[in-house]
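User: I'm writing a short report section on ligand binding and want a predicted complex to refer to. Could you take this sequence and 2-acetamido-2-deoxy-beta-D-glucopyranose and write out the structure as tokens? A short remark afterwards would be nice.
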Amino acid sequence: MAKFSSVSLVQLFLSATGVLAGLKVDVNDVASVKKAAAIVAEDLMSFYKGEIPGLLPGPPPAGDYYQWTGGALWASMLDYRSRTGDKQYDEKISEGLLWQRGPNHDFLSPNWTLTTANDDQAIWAMAALLATETGFTEPGGDDPKWLAIAQNVFDEQSSESRRVDNGSCAGGLRWQISPVSNGYNWIATVANVAYANLGARLSLQDRKNETRPQLVEDTFDWLETSKFIDSNFNVYDGAQAFDCDETNKLQFSYVSAFALESAAIMFNSTGEEKWKTLVDGLTKRTIAVFFPDGVAKEVACESTECNTDMTFFKSFLHRSLASTMKVAPYTADLILPVLKTSAAAAAKSCTGGDNERLCGLTWSGSFDNQTGAGSQMSVLSALLSLLPAETVADSPGSSTGGSETSSSTTPSPTSTDGSPESSTIPGNSGSHVGVSSIVLLGGLALVSFVLN
Ligand SMILES: *[C@@H]1O[C@H](CO)[C@@H](O)[C@H](O)[C@H]1NC(C)=O
Ligand SMILES: *[C@@H]1O[C@H](CO)[C@@H](O)[C@H](O)[C@H]1NC(C)=O
Ligand SMILES: *[C@@H]1O[C@H](CO)[C@@H](O)[C@H](O)[C@H]1NC(C)=O
Ligand SMILES: *[C@@H]1O[C@H](CO)[C@@H](O)[C@H](O)[C@H]1NC(C)=O
Ligand SMILES: *[C@@H]1O[C@H](CO)[C@@H](O)[C@H](O)[C@H]1NC(C)=O
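Assistant: Sure. The structure tokens for the complex follow:
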């Protein structure tokens, strides 16, 4: 962005003088967070060349990025769009999502039949669902809407053919989809919590349908009975079918975060104590495990070596925590302070690469030179998690147009341009707003953010 050159000079000066450099951001200031997010988003998009529209370039065996990371990219860019109002990437997002949607409108591209896993498909579906939730331009023409595509995926994953049919973890969603894949008999927790996440969010879109919330509840019951989530709210990696009797106890941040966000949505729509217990337990445990010293860490790998996939997980972690605060506002007391310390540390890691502002993977200590789309996306989501999400509708006749107007049946408050916006980010939950925002006006706006 235009401001970059001066930021860069400042950084050069600071690194030359040995002062801690990094992307400049004031995590209590909306404008500052937006500005930093714009820079990080721009650099994230520099990893996307669109050779195969929709994917980050170079899927294995030629490169590092699996197909699912494209879905992660578009979700993070939709999140960026809705929290900053910046629509400059609309065409790329749309093209990328549509390209991968597949002949059956379910994000199963024949190109990836052998490797696709249920969680990969779900992550693409979650991006489509986020498009619906944030008022993104619908595909238009005869194409199904984003919501319909996400529903297709959920329905396919509900089917018995995707699930374990005997043994003591019968009912669980498998990891890979094809019976000839090595991962067919692996029961990945992430596949099941991503499925639950889709189901919970879909049920907010269609409150009349009682099947989806029931399926989400069944999934959680199964996760707990099969000890994928233990009584201390640890969320483990997975286990081998058919009995799932030897759980792999590694914990990855996005797995816990998907579970938490799903439970929070269920608590929001049912008010049931059962869900509150899960929300409270998962919130505390997720923070305790994945935010040592208030800074996000992919604990299973960061101290040794994370593979490329794992470098993306902290993006989902921050995004799901932000969503959790939205649907269960009382959790902001615990969540918002760590999102702030984490985002501040994340931004400080952005000192690398040729442009001296690419982000690293580890956010405590000095720059680790582990640059890549995953590191970039994680920092982007950390920053965005501090901003309120808005429905950003298509403006009529906008340059991104071509397609029909946005679906939006729900006339949510749009923040196209000049929306009322708070300029400071709340110090804590509504009840503590006064602590960090002394200006009363700011405080009022903040209360509305927290309660939104
Ligand atoms: C599938 O692979 C072909 C050949 O590489 C490519 O042209 C096409 O764009 C790919 N389709 C998708 C959806 O990735
Ligand atoms: C489940 O089915 C598979 C194959 O259909 C079989 O190999 C396995 O023994 C069965 N397990 C149980 C516990 O019935
Ligand atoms: C309700 O949800 C289930 C599960 O997604 C789906 O199969 C069914 O078609 C939905 N019913 C209606 C009337 O939309
Ligand atoms: C449910 O979520 C909405 C935001 O989607 C929020 O405004 C509302 O306060 C939540 N309800 C409860 C009971 O937490
Ligand atoms: C940082 O990583 C890049 C490749 O990603 C490499 O070219 C460069 O030499 C590394 N720098 C240091 C100081 O290790």
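A remark for your report: Confidence is low (pLDDT under 50) at residues 1-20, 395-420, 428-452. The pocket of 2-acetamido-2-deoxy-beta-D-glucopyranose (ligand 3) is lined by residues 154-155, 158, 209, 211-212 (CB under 6 Å).
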